[in-house]
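4.2 Preliminary Data

To establish feasibility before requesting continued support, the project team ran the inverse folding procedure on a target of 306 residues. The structure was first converted into the token representation described in Section 3, and no sequence information of any kind was made available to the design step. The complete token record follows.
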């Protein structure tokens, strides 16, 4: 068929004819490189049908893998992902310096308990699936620093959401405009942007700026939360993300904004501290898992518990 600008659709639409035709259009001196590149791509192992580790690791490690894989799926479910980027790490119970982290190259909705990589605090890979995917350096620069300095932290979660990046770019930071954001009054850190997090020397400043808090806004970058459990870290990130979305929406309305008095802010923030009334994430977690289980039936992806 003749199309725009005289383009003619090939009679044979098979891949073989397309490749041959494409190679003919490549200068002779470059054809070897094209074939070499195609051969290299075909030899790279990016398969994701990983075998189950359930019978090969301890019960405590398997549970940590299950919870962390579920956390990745929930971050995807609540639209807090950034393609294949970002990380959530979890400490393996009973080990002083072993962490679980995602393979760099998988969507969050692809991550399973058996696909998670075991590393130490310095980013050395102790175990990973049979794949050419590896890990991203920033995953252990940021996360390893916090796990090393805060042994009580079981999970660290970092995102690049649209609303999170927007608030991270605001000089005012997070404003106490809603009950959800008021919980962070006096309980959130700020870290100035230093470029992509690949410099080990930044670790000290990351830890200093987070301080004793479980949440931090990384200016011009994104959001970070941590917690004594995976469930708590997820819950805190969900609340921080909702706070940022509400702030961006409220400011976009260009209406006069109201902020409660200092006494109300302090009282509310205290009531939302983990442990003041109940731990974060514990009550919500079973419902979150039921949601994932129900949606896994039609997702087209392997279940997180694989």
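Position-by-position output of the design step:
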């Amino acid at each position: 068929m003749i199309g725009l600008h005289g383009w003619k659709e090939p009679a044979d639409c098979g891949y073989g004819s397309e490749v041959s035709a494409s190679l003919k259009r490549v200068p002779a001196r470059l054809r070897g490189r094209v074939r070499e590149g195609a051969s290299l791509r075909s030899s790279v192992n990016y398969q994701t049908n990983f075998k189950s580790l359930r019978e090969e690791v301890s019960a405590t490690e398997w549970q940590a893998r299950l919870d962390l894989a579920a956390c990745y799926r929930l971050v995807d479910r609540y639209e807090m992902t950034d393609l294949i980027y970002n990380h959530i790490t979890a400490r393996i119970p009973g080990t002083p310096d072993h962490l679980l982290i995602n393979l760099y190259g998988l969507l969050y909705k692809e991550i399973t308990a058996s696909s998670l990589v075991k590393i130490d605090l310095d980013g050395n890979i102790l175990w990973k699936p049979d794949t050419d995917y590896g890990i991203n350096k920033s995953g252990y620069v940021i996360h390893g620093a916090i796990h090393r300095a805060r042994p009580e932290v079981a999970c660290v979660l970092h995102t690049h959401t649209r609303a999170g990046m927007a608030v991270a770019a605001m000089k005012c930071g997070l404003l106490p405009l809603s009950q959800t954001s008021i919980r962070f009054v006096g309980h959130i850190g700020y870290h100035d942007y230093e470029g992509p997090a690949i410099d080990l020397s930044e670790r000290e400043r990351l830890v200093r700026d987070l301080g004793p808090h479980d949440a931090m806004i990384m200016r011009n970058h994104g959001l970070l939360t941590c917690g004594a459990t995976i469930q708590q870290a997820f819950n805190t990130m969900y609340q921080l993300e909702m706070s940022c979305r509400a702030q961006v929406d409220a400011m976009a309305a260009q209406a006069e904004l109201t902020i409660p008095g200092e006494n109300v802010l302090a009282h509310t923030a205290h009531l939302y501290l983990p442990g003041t009334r109940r731990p974060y994430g514990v009550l919500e977690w079973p419902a979150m898992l039921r949601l994932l289980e129900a949606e896994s039936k039609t997702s087209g992806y392997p279940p997180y518990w694989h």
